[in-house]
Amino acid sequence: xxxxxxxxxxxxxxxxxxxxxxxxxLARWPGCRVVNYDKLTYAGNLENLRDVEADPRHxxxxxxxxxxxxxxxxxxxxxxxxxxxxxxxxDRSIDDPFVFTxxxxxGTHVMLECAxxxxxxxxxxxxxxxxxxxxxxxxxxETDRLDPRSPYSSSKAAADLLALSYHATFGxxxxxxxxxxxxxxxxxxxxxxxxxxxxALADRQLPIYGxxxxxxxxxxxxxxxxxxxxxxxxxxxxxxYNIGGGREMMNIEITDLILKELGKPSSLxxxxxxxxxxxxxxxxxxxxxxxxxxxxxxx
Length: 299
Description:
Layout: E1 7-11, H1 16-28, E2 33-38, E3 58-62, H2 68-75, E4 80-83, H3 90-95, H4 97-118, E5 123-128, H5 151-170, E6 174-179, E7 181-183, H6 192-201, E8 206-209, E9 215-220, H7 221-234, E10 240-243, E11 248-250, H8 251-262, E12 269-272, H9 287-290
Parallel strand pairs: 1-2, 1-4, 2-3, 4-5, 5-6, 6-10, 7-9, 8-12
Antiparallel strand pairs: 9-11
Helix pairs in contact: 1-7, 2-4, 4-5, 6-8
């Protein structure tokens, strides 16, 4: 799909990945327009968009994805919806799981219904690798059984399945992406890399869950945005695309690397009790998206 000349509705576009994608879209498709719909919760910040706020192709709308009337008004005229908006912090989902059900499941349902009512040609649901659960060996493929183990990942799995049901039932062009851990500019400091960097710079201790040997794959956020664009341009209706960087590292390795780069002592590491339901390893096979011509770049 050629996005030039298209109005793209981006939800969660004031957050970390969403704001990077807004910037990416405006650069990649000079003829597009972006309607940026964000509630501005704790993780959304208009400062993330300061360099595009004056761009006439960008319009910001503050709103809740669960507010059907507001969503419908903002979505009117859109040729594509890219649905980033989500509650995404696992620890927060353990403390207050209903918030995650409301935003991630009900909010996605509202988005899908509005898109169906308005006849939006393309809906892209942005997901997470956590829906597959822990992978002892090998890598998860898109057809694997979902095995979420936290309220966060369960809510995202439900959202993915709901989105795909709108393709199967109503014939909508719905696509789903599932990405590994991102890092890069504008990331909220509760996430591992920015949290550990800011903590180490302030000589605060870095909490290491369990033995610190949990494995995550890391992808630079601009690569993620590029992959999302490939799926919009070249992907297929009803398809799921894993997105990964092929850079698996244990959390303790990330921690040691941060301390080394900042010249900080290993004594800043502090062992803490493991998080309930803490998955040991995530790993994604990315053969499906490679067929579209995308591949992660060295960073």
